Structure formats: structure tokens, C-alpha cells
């Protein structure tokens, strides 16, 4: 799935105050989406951009890779599980490669 726009909801504002952010453009400035064949480029300790969504917001946040469960790739591509810790609130989450963008080196 390709996400072009992500709705950003700021707590304290009504729905009318939501902002639409062109994530594709914003993220391209500073990061590189990964192809399934490139999953080996992600390593424990890397800082990545990770898509995250909860009731307050949906956006790409800086996160550190703390653990990787490598799986055999199948017809759908990468099946690896990446455990990331968000810089913002130190929450940990298990995500798929499709939710991760690499920062330029
Ligand atoms: Zn993989």
C-alpha cells in the first residue's frame, strides 16, 4: 500500500482543524522507502522513520530499531518483524518493513 496523505489530528482541536500532510513529499526529503529486497539494510540500532497511527495522530516518527525477527521472504515479500522504539515517547512497537523508511546515510 502506498500512502500519499496522512491525516494529522492534533489533540485539543476539532476535526475541522485536521491538517493533511503530503507524506510522500515530506518523507522523500529526508528518507528512502525500502523495497522488500532491501530489508537487510535495516540493522539493530538504526534510526528510521516509522509510520505510526493512534487516536491522536498518524505520521512518520523517528524511531530506533531495537530488535529484528528475520523471516523467510515469500511471494508477498518481506515477512520480517521489526521492533522499534519511538524517540517521541519511547513506546515500542512491532512493525513490518512497509512501515519503515530509511534515513539517508
Ligand atoms: Zn525481510
TrEMBL record:
<dbReference type="Pfam" id="PF16719">
    <property type="entry name" value="SAWADEE"/>
</dbReference>
<protein>
    <recommendedName>
        <fullName>SAWADEE domain-containing protein</fullName>
    </recommendedName>
</protein>
<dbReference type="InterPro" id="IPR032001">
    <property type="entry name" value="SAWADEE_dom"/>
</dbReference>
<dbReference type="InterPro" id="IPR039276">
    <property type="entry name" value="SHH1/2"/>
</dbReference>
<feature type="domain" description="SAWADEE">
    <location>
        <begin position="5"/>
        <end position="101"/>
    </location>
</feature>
Amino acid at each position: 500500500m502506498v500512502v500519499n496523505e496522512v491525516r494529522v489530528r492534533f489533540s485539543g482541536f476539532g476535526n475541522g482543524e485536521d491538517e493533511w500532510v503530503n507524506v510522500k513529499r515530506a518523507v522523500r526529503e529526508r528518507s528512502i522507502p525500502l523495497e522488500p529486497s532491501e530489508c537487510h539494510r535495516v540493522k539493530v540500532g538504526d534510526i528510521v522513520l516509522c509510520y505510526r497511527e493512534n487516536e491522536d495522530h498518524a505520521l512518520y516518527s523517528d524511531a530506533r530499531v531495537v530488535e529484528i525477527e528475520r523471516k523467510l521472504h515469500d511471494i508477498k515479500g518481506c515477512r520480517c518483524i521489526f521492533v522499534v522504539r519511538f524517540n517521541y515517547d519511547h513506546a515500542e512497537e512491532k512493525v513490518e518493513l512497509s512501515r519503515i523508511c530509511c534515513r539517508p546515510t
